[in-house]
């Protein structure tokens, strides 16, 4: 069965119906991209995964477990690593402190994980004792990815990691994410505005429109759709 499965998920904000029956899966080891215009419901879909938004219908299963009603504060250990929109790093804390915050609740393996993440991101290693607020945009995004990896996720979920980055910096972030996928077999769910770039990275794609899945399939087929 799929690593992640959303089945007929409905959700909204007060009277606003943001999701109208979303079916979406990510298989073990798969790289999936979620595209669509502003307001389509992409962020809301990710908020359903993090527990910030409670579905009013349908089910969310992860690793064979129904997590639909698991509240946000109890989801840390489930194995979903979130790289939130806008990165949300703590600017006054050092790079190391920011990474350690991601280790909760797997503290036992913190030192080993920290060494792994610093090896993956040499530029973070060089700046480990500096306040995270002094990092460039690209470095801050790497830090957000590194922090998510500290939780030993089975699925990495990224919300528009290219936002606010120069094209070359965005490409560098994407290269790192792709490498995590190909070399470590990490499953990835990526929300992106840069559709053409994302479709080249991913194996499968969903396109959302007005709270529903308008199109889905192999990334190359979706890319060829007019
Ligand atoms: P996307 O991420 O694709 O841009 P969103 O999931 O943010 O789309 O938004 C889906 C719909 O839900 C839109 O109509 C949006 O205006 C509405 N929405 C999103 N966040 C909120 C919120 N916090 N309160 C009320 N409505 C919201
Ligand atoms: P990017 O294109 O990746 O955003 P920048 O041109 O913003 O890169 O930054 C280049 C380098 O300068 C980076 O290594 C970053 O850490 C450093 N840097 C940027 N802003 C500051 C700052 N306010 N204080 C200290 N170092 C900074």
UniProtKB/TrEMBL annotation:
Task: Fetch the InterPro entries from UniProt.
Answer: AAA+_ATPase (IPR003593), ABC_transporter-like_ATP-bd (IPR003439), ABC_transporter-like_CS (IPR017871), BCAA_Transport_ATP-bd_LivF (IPR052156), P-loop_NTPase (IPR027417)
The cross-references to Gene3D superfamilies, in alphabetical order and at most eight, read: P-loop containing nucleotide triphosphate hydrolases
**SUPFAM superfamilies in alphabetical order:** P-loop containing nucleoside triphosphate hydrolases
The molecular function terms in GO held by this entry are:
ATP binding
Write the record's keywords in alphabetical order, separated by commas: Amino-acid transport, ATP-binding, Nucleotide-binding, Transport
| Domain ABC transporter residues, every copy | 4-226
Q: Which PANTHER family match?
A: HIGH-AFFINITY BRANCHED-CHAIN AMINO ACID TRANSPORT ATP-BINDING PROTEIN LIVF (PTHR43820)
Q: According to its UniProt record, which protein family does this protein belong to?
A: Belongs to the ABC transporter superfamily.
What protein is this chain from?
ABC transporter ATP-binding protein
Source organism of this protein record:
Actinomadura monticuli
């Amino acid at each position: 069965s799929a690593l992640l499965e959303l089945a007929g998920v409905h959700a909204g904000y007060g009277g606003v119906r943001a999701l109208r029956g979303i079916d979406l899966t990510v298989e073990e080891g798969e790289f999936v991209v979620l595209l669509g215009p502003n307001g389509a419901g992409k962020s809301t879909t990710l908020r359903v995964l993090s527990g910030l938004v409670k579905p009013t219908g349908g089910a969310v299963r992860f690793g064979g477990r129904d997590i639909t009603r698991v509240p946000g504060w109890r989801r840390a250990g489930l194995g979903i690593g979130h790289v939130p929109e806008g990165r949300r790093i703590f600017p006054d804390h050092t790079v190391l402190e920011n990474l350690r915050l991601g280790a909760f609740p797997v503290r036992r393996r913190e030192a080993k994980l920290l060494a792994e993440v610093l090896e993956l991101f040499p530029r973070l290693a060089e700046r480990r004792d500096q306040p995270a607020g002094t990092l460039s945009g690209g470095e801050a995004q790497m830090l957000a990815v590194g922090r998510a990896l500290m939780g030993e996720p089975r699925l990495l979920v990224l919300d528009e990691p290219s936002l606010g980055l120069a094209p070359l910096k965005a490409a560098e972030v994407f290269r790192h994410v792709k490498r995590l996928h190909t070399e470590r077999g990490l499953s990835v769910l990526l929300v992106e505005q840069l559709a053409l770039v994302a479709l080249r990275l991913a194996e499968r794609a969903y396109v959302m429109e007005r709270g529903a899945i308008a199109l889905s399939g192999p990334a190359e087929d979706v890319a060829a759709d007019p």
